[in-house]
Amino acid sequence: MKKHIMILGSGFAGMWAAVSAARLAYINGGDDINISVLAPHPELRVRPRFYENNVASLVSPLAPLFTALNIHFIQGNAKRIDNKTKNVWYSDAEGQLASASYDRLVLATGSNARQVTVPGADQYTFNIDQLESAHVFEKHLTGLANQTPTPARNTVVVCGGGFTGIELATELPSRLRELFGTETKTRVIVVERGDVIGGRYSEALRDVIEQASREIGIEWRLQADITAIDATGVTLSDGSHIASSTVVWTAGVQANALTEQFAAERDSVGRLYVDENLQIRGVSDVFATGDVAHAATDDVGNTALMSCQHAIQLGKFAGNNVAASILGLPPIPYRQVNYVTCLDLGSWGAVFTEGWDQKVQSVREEAKKIKIAITNELIYPPRAEREIAFAAADPLAKFV
Ligand SMILES: Cc1cc2nc3c(=O)[nH]c(=O)nc-3n(C[C@H](O)[C@H](O)[C@H](O)COP(=O)(O)OP(=O)(O)OC[C@H]3O[C@@H](n4cnc5c(N)ncnc54)[C@H](O)[C@@H]3O)c2cc1C
Q1: Is the distance from CB of 329 to CB of 277 less than 8 angstroms?
Q2: CA 362, chain centre distance (Å)
């Protein structure tokens, strides 16, 4: 009887896990394995671009790829997993509860913004974490153009100065110029707990972020905690108030809640600890990949980040290894020694670094070209042709 691999999630990790499992099955005769992907939408949502305008366009359909590779797509939202009976319960496209059984499971349900506990945050903040919320933010921003110009209308507060906050903040001056015209004085303020700009990054990267912020007029409020948010703006821990109609929360991400359904150890952001083959430690027949997996990338102590860069490779290895476990083949231990950072800095350009010590390799227009090549091409699904898709899904093929 055919064995069934079920993959939950069609993001970077889930999509690549499916293609990689299909590849290994195909290379080895292909008849013993059925592969299904269960996700709410048959598309890849390109989350790393959600700070951009026109978010509705940032999705890539997966049906042609899955059809070409004989991967079955089930539209639904997984609700419960029982690894004893090997069943997943999900609400289907009509909202009805349905179930499906599996022989092997790959959890690839990604991450989402952590709930913010600051008073007023629920009602008065936006986020760009998911397509729907990024769309709500975009609609709000566009709508501001029809409002009476006031300092609050013309000011955006970005809460959190990590990568997402920086990419959004540096993108905003040009978006606001387009909306309000070049004559309007606008402000973009990043509120950050840390005492320096980009405190988690290398000194060289920090310097670039600081320079770009200065040149395009991003204001930073450092060592600042937000204590309350209301319709008039944000209040900081020092008692000061910033008048703003637009407060965007970018800090804090956690692994998808399905990770809680396994009796297994999780890290501080809810990711499941996996072994070198990406199987959940202590849980048979279940693999975790992408943002739900806490995985070592090398032998010197680095671990995968919640990043697209890691999710893509984690997906390829998980897919390969889940198929290998059925085919009786040796797994390929996950390794991803190279690490790069490419940070968009809006109209200033971008910055590209290499290595975990984040050595700056290029800046401004040169780095922007790399950023565009990554976010507009490299991270998109492969062409819906077997040979091309399988070549790209090989976990040992060159990536970055
Ligand atoms: C604004 C923003 C900017 C970013 N910038 C960068 C960047 O510059 N570089 C970088 O490397 N990374 C960046 N990231 C991070 C990157 O997007 C994530 O690390 C990446 O998307 C993780 O891939 P994934 O496949 O694990 O999860 P996701 O891409 O989140 O995919 C999860 C999938 O699971 C599905 N799913 C969720 N719940 C269920 C369920 N219950 N049942 C079935 N399916 C479910 C979802 O619909 C989706 O298909 C950014 C993220 C954001 C939000």
Answers
A1: no
A2: 24
Going by their DSSP bridges, the two strands 272-273 and 246-249 should be labelled as unpaired
CA of 28 to the centre of ligand 1 (A): 31
Helix (H) or strand (E) run with residue 101 in it: strand 97-101
Q: Which atom of ligand 1 is nearest to the CA of 41?
A: 47
Q: Tell me whether the CATH fold assigned to 3-113+253-338 matches the one assigned to 121-249.
A: yes
Which band of pLDDT confidence, cut at 50, 70 and 90, is reported for residue 399? confident
Identify the CA nearest to 241 among candidates 309, 191, 291.
Answer: 191
Instruction: Evaluate if pTM is beyond 0.85.
Output: yes
Per CATH, which fold does 3-113+253-338 belong to? FAD/NAD(P)-binding domain (3.50.50)
> Which residues have any ligand 1 atom within 6 Å of their CB?
8-14, 38-40, 47-48, 50-51, 77-78, 108-111, 128-129, 163-164, 256, 258, 290-291, 306-309, 311
**CATH C-level class of 121-249:** alpha beta
Measure CA of the first residue to CA of the last residue in the chain; give whole Å: 39
For the chain, what are the domain ranges? 3-113+253-338, 121-249
Instruction: Please provide residue 174's backbone torsions phi and psi, each rounded to the nearest 5 degrees.
Output: -70, -35
Q: What is the pLDDT of residue 31?
A: 79
